[in-house]
Amino acid sequence: MKAIVVRAFGGPEVLEHATVDDPRAGPGEVVVALRAIGVNPVETYIRSGTHARKPALPWIPGSDGAGEVLAVGEGVTTLRPGDRVYTIGSRTGTYAERCACAVTEVVRLPAQATFAQGAALHVPYTTAWLALFAKARIQPAEVVLVHGASGGVGTAAVQLARAAGAIVIGTAGTPAGLALALEHGAHHVLDHQDPGHLARAVELTGGRGIDVVVEMLANVNLDLDLDVLAQHGRVVVVGNRGRIEIDPRRLMTREASILGMSLHNVAPTEQARIQLAIVAGLEAGTLRPVVGRELPLAAAADAHRAVLAPGAHGKIVLVP
Length: 320
Fold this sequence. Notes:
This protein is of the alpha/beta class. It has helices at 41-48, 115-119, 122-135, 152-163, 175-183, 197-204, 218-228, 249-254, 268-284, 300-307; strands at residues 2-6, 15-19, 29-39, 64-72, 84-88, 98-102, 106-108, 143-146, 167-172, 188-191, 210-215, 229-237, 257-260, 291-296, 315-319. α3 (122-135) crosses α4 and α3 (122-135) packs across α9.
């Protein structure tokens, strides 16, 4: 089969479109024939060698994908060949035509979701769910500011927060991104290229401040976020690409919190519970994954460049 293989850490050019052996389903595993593959920023960090996680090489990237069960291993009784599924992990990596997964790493994909939408579920929606509910513990009528509301995690956070009864303010850097955030549930949108956009966010609350900030780029925004928090406000750090200096006094006077999170720390039982909530949202129509761009598997290097570029518009998906 064809797959994307990393044989040395480095830039996007190390993503090699190669022929590799087909995976096989061991005990408790399934093989999925992938129809769409989700691309996430974390995979670019791992590929470059700058992430805390450094997999053994050669390595096939990816945890997100959707397709049909091709084969099941010994002891698997809950799935059978032909079932539509999306992946929340993989033993062999999802940047490939096929992947092997533990049976706990696949979830049935509702009929109303396309394979491309299925590939846009795991990292974006699980991240947004954890940020909003497990970490920030948002409540109805709280004000939630979502930075980068037009990206994969951003649109997921907007949809989830709106469905939970929060007042949602989304930021984006293009007219199309602002329109997308509005379409998917933001009550207000602000251009984050405007230096005064955070002051405008506070004005929208009547001066009270923001209860929860979902922060995608903490090394740029975190110090500024602290100025706009309401009393007992929370910033959840979802993404970061470097260091930043902050003034802790801003936290003290507001009795505010900065909360970090990582999908790698999620226990399997919690993962399963979150996926139940995500599937229910898909079935009810409150969650609508946005696929902004589809590229062939061989164009993985272009996808890695695009996923870090400004002006995100939904999820980037590879098609085998």
